[in-house]
Design goal:
By secondary structure, this protein is an alpha+beta fold. The protein contains seven helices and six strands. It has two domains: about 140 residues, no CATH class; about 80 residues, ACT domain (Alpha-Beta Plaits). α2 runs antiparallel to α3.
Length: about 220
């Protein structure tokens, strides 16, 4: 039977470890966009999984029930939440990494709830290594450092589109693909795939675009 302190330690550790993974997702916030599954979502997933595992352990000790049954439902149920983080934009599927991080956060929560502190902590460190270090290497290999995708909400005015094009040209960005979506009678959405010159400050680019007359919102799209 778990003591009160055992339960407190496990739930608090689940919040800490889940928050560490969630912070990594939040660090990709650029401009006005952030991941739908970020800091709080990862905490809730990890904490919920840990709580489910604690309940399973308690049921096992008190009623001699199957402690693995609730844990198995958590693993299968997290797939629905992960599916909500995956977005399809044309032929491109995005959010797979975030969905995977939610799944592994649930697994870490189960490990913490089961009392496997070393496995949960080491698992969190390995997840951060994969997301941060290996993610940087992956970006370098794919050459994404010199590419970018933007979504720009602006007034339904040809002059506003022209101002966006002039600014991108002035900063040396090359538009590889442009898609214009009509949002309403007053607003339209530009989705741009850009090739950016080496050394360009993306934050400056976003801020300058957001400051243009007629531009309402600028979002940097990422995986």
């Amino acid at each position: 039977m778990l003591s009160q302190w055992d339960i407190i330690i496990r739930l608090v550790l689940a919040v800490v470890l889940g928050g560490m993974i969630g912070l990594e997702r939040e660090r990709l916030h650029v401009g006005f966009r952030t991941y739908s599954a970020g800091f709080r979502t990862h905490i809730l997933v990890c904490l919920g999984a840990a709580l489910a595992m604690v309940v399973s352990v308690q049921i096992h000790y008190e009623f001699r029930g199957d402690a693995a049954r609730i844990a198995a439902q958590v693993v299968s149920g997290i797939g629905f939440l992960g599916a909500g983080a995956i977005l399809r934009e044309g032929f491109v599927v995005r959010g797979l990494t975030t969905a995977a991080s939610l799944w592994v956060a649930a697994s870490i929560g189960l490990a913490v709830g089961g009392g496997y502190y070393l496995a949960a902590t080491l698992g969190t460190l390995l997840v951060l290594f994969a997301l941060v270090i290996l993610g940087t290497i992956e970006d370098y290999v794919r050459g994404k450092r010199h590419q970018g995708r933007l979504r720009v909400m602006l007034e339904n005015d040809p002059a506003a589109v022209q101002r966006v094009g002039e600014l991108l040209e002035a900063m040396g960005a090359t538009v590889r693909h442009l898609e214009i979506q009509r949002v309403s009678a007053d607003y339209q959405m530009l989705v741009l795939a850009l090739r950016l010159p080496a050394g360009i400050n993306r934050i400056e680019l976003l801020n300058r675009l957001a400051g243009l007359e007629g531009v309402c919102r600028v979002e940097h799209l990422n995986d």
